[in-house]
User: Which sequence fits this backbone?
């Protein structure tokens, strides 16, 4: 079965750039998306179709997807960006999620 | 405003059944494919099932295939998940989510299913 691999955790200082990777075989051949989830809350879509931002998502969130890796980049990371981030893609009529990355801003 | 409200969760014994519902409002429900996604306590997101607008295309994760059935009633703006032969490992918060292309752009608040003896 298809797998998406994310680093379990990432720490950044406020104002720095956070880059969260998501790896999967030929992931760049499919659209990738990213969700943010804060404790006790439902996931929120922050990037879809590799690099598109839904309305209401700040411009500091951006995405890319090429080869075997999709990347979520948060420029000028703020304390409010702390949370878990999940990548997701479709493969052979199934939806696959990455294991999630816990982003800490300190 | 798009709203998705899940209901039907609760405590059930292993081998039991439960039917989850998701009431949709604020958008044309019949125009969107829908998904069920679950999250076990302290764990990541796991896709469960997807259904197309007219129920022509239905997909399941291997972990629930043959035990769970997704369905929808476009006249009632509702999505369902019939869960049979429940196992302890099915314990999770179950979310319904609206599909936007290959992503889910709106999620409900979730309903907790606990499978325990």
Assistant:
């Amino acid at each position: 079965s298809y797998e998406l691999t994310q680093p379990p955790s990432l720490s950044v200082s406020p104002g720095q750039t956070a880059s969260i990777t998501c790896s999967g075989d030929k992931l760049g051949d499919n659209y990738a998306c990213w969700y943010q989830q804060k404790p006790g809350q439902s996931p929120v879509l922050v990037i879809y179709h590799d690099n598109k931002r839904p309305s209401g998502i700040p411009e500091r969130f951006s995405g890319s997807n090429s080869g075997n890796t999709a990347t979520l980049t948060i420029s000028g990371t703020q304390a409010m960006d702390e949370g878990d981030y999940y990548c997701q893609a479709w493969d052979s009529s199934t939806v696959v999620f990455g294991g999630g990355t816990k982003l800490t801003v300190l | 405003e798009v709203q998705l409200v899940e209901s039907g969760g609760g405590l059930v014994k292993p081998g039991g059944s439960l039917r989850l519902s998701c009431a949709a409002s604020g958008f044309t429900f019949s125009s969107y494919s829908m998904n069920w996604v679950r999250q076990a306590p302290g764990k990541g997101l796991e896709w469960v099932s997807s259904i197309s607008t007219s129920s022509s295309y239905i997909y399941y994760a291997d972990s629930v295939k043959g035990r769970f059935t997704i369905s929808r009633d476009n006249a009632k703006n509702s999505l369902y998940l019939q869960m049979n032969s429940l196992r302890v490992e099915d314990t999770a918060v179950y979310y319904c989510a609206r599909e936007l292309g290959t992503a889910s752009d709106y999620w409900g608040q979730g309903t907790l299913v606990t499978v325990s003896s």
In short: The radius of gyration of chain B is 13 Å. Chain B has a mean pLDDT of 97. Chain B touches chain A at residues 35, 37, 44-47, 50, 57, 59, 61-62, 95, 100-105, 107-110 (CB under 8 Å). Residues 23 and 78 of chain B are 5 Å apart (CA to CA).
